[in-house]
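tool=predict chain=A
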Amino acid sequence: MTPESMPLSGPVALLAADVRELQLAKGAIAAGLRMLATRRGATPAGIGRLHLAGAFGNYISRASAQRIGLLRLPVERIVFAGNTALLGAKRALFEDAAAWDRLASRIEHVALNKEPEFQDIFAEEMRFPESTQSS
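tool=predict ok
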């Protein structure tokens, strides 16, 4: 093992690059949640329910995500939404076009990386809470 790795089990090791990837993903997701909540006049803690979709929602540990500062709301408010892409495809096949037009009129695409404050918030959100860091 190198100084930049920590053995976990057998040939499996945690690399410094793995921690960096987690840090970047955590920063991007947490920044997105924070910025979208702010656009709606809320704080992440003020979100009533957060739906997590796909494999991310299915396999994430809500408690661990909360512990590292990825999701800053009570775990009971975080719900798994399942395979939303499949559900959307099914609904597109069986619902009338007018329903989709009404939904489309309410959707807004937000390119967070183009927002002036994104880089600063992203950098702030890459930090892990003090309680998760070893001394």
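The mean pLDDT is 89. The helical segments are 16-39, 54-59, 62-67, 84-94, 97-106, 118-125.
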